[in-house]
Amino acid sequence: MKIRTRFIILTFMGLLTSCFGQKEEQHIYLAGWEAEFNGDEQCRKFLETQIIDKETANNIWSSIDLVFSNGKLIKAYNIEEGDKTDRKLKPSEIGFEFQKLKVNQIYNLNQVTNSESYLGGEIPKEFNIPKFEFNAPFQYLGKFSKSEEAFNWLPFDLHIAAPIYLNFDKLFIDYSDPLNPKVLNIEELKQTDNSYDDLKPDSEIVFEKVFITTEKASDFGGIGHTSVPNWIQYPDIPTCPKSKKTMKLLCQLTYDGIDIKTKRTNVQPKDEWYKQYFEKMNFWGDGDLYIFFEPESKIMCFIIQHT
Predict the structure, then answer these.
(1) How far, rounded to the nearest angstrom, does the alpha carbon of residue 210 sit from its chain's CA centroid?
(2) Are 75 and 93 in contact (CB under 8 A)?
């Protein structure tokens, strides 16, 4: 009789828990570590840009696991190469509300023998590369085709060009006319210096053409990757100056993955040390190039970070 009574009580308690008890824990996994979950604009941009799945969080070098109960943040973990440690929550973060966000899928860029997408190459005749009157010319960096699964969200194929030897903070380019892009922050760039005295407005640096394709991945690798920035320094997520929307990472080209040699150049550095910077595609020597795009406004943003 006692056993039967205990069984009925446990069953009743189980029903109560099922109907009125706590919900299962919810998780948000994020690439990176430098963030504060207080609901401000930087927090919102970080969540939107850095959200990944659990598998990816355990594979990449650094990530965060946010744990929610009844829709409120109750604890968090830092994950380094799969190893979890407690992450101390600030008073402003406790109780942060759970948000249902679309998880970003990483694609790695790999070299292939032929493709519609490529890095480097000659400037296509139909593409008018922006030109400056000052000493930091644009370089043609390649084309991303929307026929690639990773780029099918683009409104059209994108030819990529940037003055990668200029020490800019952010470079915004309007691709409303995709074959005639226009620099938005031109006055700001005029005040920006570069670290190469040998560069002239008519300097030419053309890189070899390397065909690429994209492949789904749960870690950062290849020549570079899409969708989720792997920040070398702080998360510097751009907001589109026209639509005010958070910009999406089109591609990050990494200094330790890319090996695209210079096909030709008329730059002749006087200092032997500087010759290495014109022998292959690089971004301030040991930097990564972050390319963001906002498909509604058709604005592109370039950022370089280095160690």
Answers:
(1) 21
(2) no
